[in-house]
Amino acid sequence: MALQGTLKDFGIADILQLIGQQQKTGQLYLESKEQEVNVFFKDGNIARVESITRKKKDLIGNMLVRAEIITEAQLEESLETQRRTLKRLGDVLVSSGFITADRFKKMMQLQATETLYRLFSWDAGTYAFKAEPVESDTEAITPLRAESVLMEGFRMVDEWPVIRKKINRLDMTFECLKPLPPPVNTEPDFDAAFDDAFAEKKKDENKGEFKSVGDSERRVYEAISPTRDVRKLIDVSCLGEFETCKALLNLINLQYVRPYYPEGQSPSAGGSALLAKAGQSLGRVGASMAALGAILFLAVQVLGFLSPKEMAASSFADPGAQRFISRNQLKRIEAAVEVFRLEKGEVPERLDALVEAGLLKPEELRYPWREPYYYRRLASREFVLLPPLQ
């Protein structure tokens, strides 16, 4: 049965989780305002990501120029060759010696992942999944596991609010204060690197903690110059927006670099709307992603591959099934409360505030019960949440 509807009924995280768990093969078409993105799945893994309405600056050729991997002249020459030969741009660039095949694949992987995470900022739109054969292009990108994409989203949800406190403008520049310590020699785990959805990025020491110097920090540190702002560092580091901003925060906290703001402007004046939107949007995704695995697994096993409306209309009469779903629904509500606290500075007075904030739908405060969940705020960061008495 086809999976289609609006993103208000079924979020991006829900869709990715469901397709990944069902190990479906086909094409997911997403549209929001003037944006259109196709995500191709093969056996539940993301095989390709295509933005039909990708902005000029996000085209792979322009990304390579902004990253200072190729020159504008080399791009123009390659585009002309592409028009004459009808070859793929990557093949032309590699055969011309302007870039290695491995480097080009890493940039294609970065382009795909950045496109994926922008989807999480969509608060409206439509989606449609069509089961059909999909050819994997492993020369373009390494397939991404849907679960890994969601886990990366969880990490962003946790860390973006902290990052935005200091890296709050795209026009910030930086000064290096002291050299970095020598890197720690560790034996690389090639199996783990290949298995990771973002294998082209070496994982940093103590990832998730803002107190270590890893590969990302070293790459960003080496790219810093007085003329390069955050926007340019994101381009030349080839790490993506989130990883670059996190590395900059680590370097600031460890006092390896000092931030500078445009002359005559305070750190908060005219703050970057892009960075702020990224943090808020990913925060809302956190509530949508929390505990989806167990909930959807049970729904899929009992109901099959149903549309969201059919899933919402279904009910479980078995008390055991109700308790199972309720435990995971409590985690979902708790996650929404935490996102609300991150955005507002305190937990809500009542659960209805989560609906008003767009974090949950009204039925999610009752499902699978008829009575609403019991909630009481104890302090600005403390609350009690219990299932209704049955």
UniProtKB/TrEMBL annotation:
The keyword Membrane is assigned to this record: yes
Question: Domain PatA-like N-terminal: where?
Answer: 4-84, 87-160
List the keywords (alphabetical): Membrane, Transmembrane, Transmembrane helix
In which domain of life is the source organism classified? Bacteria
Q: Which residues cross the membrane?
A: 285-306
Please name the InterPro entries in this protein's record: PatA-like_N, Pilin-like, T2SS_E_N_sf
Q: What is the official name of this protein in its record? A: PatA-like N-terminal domain-containing protein
